[in-house]
Amino acid sequence: MLESLFAKFDGAYAPRTIDNYRSDFANFTNFTKWCEAQGIDTLEVSPSELARFIDAMMPRWSSSTIKHHIAAINTIYRLSDRVPIGDTPEVLLALKRFHRKKGNWQKQASPVTREILIKLLAVCDDSVHGLRDRVLLRLGYESLARHAELCSFRFEDLYQRPDWPAAINLRFAKNDQFGDGRLIPIRRICTQTSAPGQTKPVVLDSCCDE
C-alpha cells in the first residue's frame, strides 16, 4: 500500500521531502500493529481510537516522534481518499496531553560560528575536493541555506548586483516548492579562478577572512 502512495509523491514533492516521508512511514508499522492488536482497520480509525493510540505511545515516544506519526497518518489518509483525522478536536486534545506530559522541546543542531567555520576551512586542502568544500562551507555560512539548497547551487546562480558585491539565486527552497526563486545577498565576497581547469569563477572569500 505504501509503495503505491509513494508513486503519487514522485514529481509532486522534493526528493528530501519524500525521504522524510519514507522515514516516517517506516515507523507506520507501529500504528499498524497497534491497530491489529485492537482489532481495528488501519484505514478506518476513528478520532477516539487515534487518541487512544497517542495515549498508549506516551511512555515510549517523544513529542516529535508522535507528531511525525500523526502527520504520516494524515498523509496516508489523504492519499487514500479518506478524511484525515489527525486534526480533529479529540486527537488535538490527546496531543496536548502528550506534550504537557513529555514536553515539546526538540533538540536543535549546534550553529556554525565564525570560530568553527575557521577550523573547518583550515582542514580543507587545495585539491578540487578541498576547493569544493571551502565553497560549500563559506556559501552555507553566508546564505544560511539548507544543505539540499546549498548543494543545488550552480556557477550560473552567482549574480553581480550594484547594491551588493554578489548574490546567489536560490532556485528552489523548502518554502518555495514551485521554483519562484529569490536572490540571497552575499556580503564581502569575491570571485577567483582557482580550480584546476576551471574557467568560471569560484566563490572563495568571505567575512571569516577578516
What does this structure look like?
By secondary structure, the chain is mostly helical. Helices cover 49% and strands 11% of the residues. The protein is built from nine helices and five strands. It has helices spanning 2-9, 15-26, 28-38, 47-57, 63-79, 89-102, 114-122, 128-143, 147-151, and strands at residues 158-161, 164-170, 182-186, 190-192, 202-205. It has a three-stranded antiparallel beta sheet, with helices on one face. A two-stranded antiparallel ribbon has the order 4-5. Helix 7 packs antiparallel against helix 8. It is elongated. The termini are far apart. Residues 189-210 have low confidence and may be disordered.
Strand order of the largest sheet: 1-2-3
Give start-end ranges of low-pLDDT stretches: 189-210
Relative helix content: 40-55%
- The backbone outline, from C-alpha atoms, is elongated
* Radius of gyration (Å): 23 Å
Helices and strands, in order, run as HHHHHHHHHEEEEE
Average pLDDT level: 77
* Count, helices: 9
Strand content: 5-15%
Instruction: State the oligomer.
Output: single chain
Q: Main beta sheet, described?
A: 3 strands, antiparallel
State the end-to-end distance: 56 Å
SS-based structural class? mainly alpha
Number of strands: 5
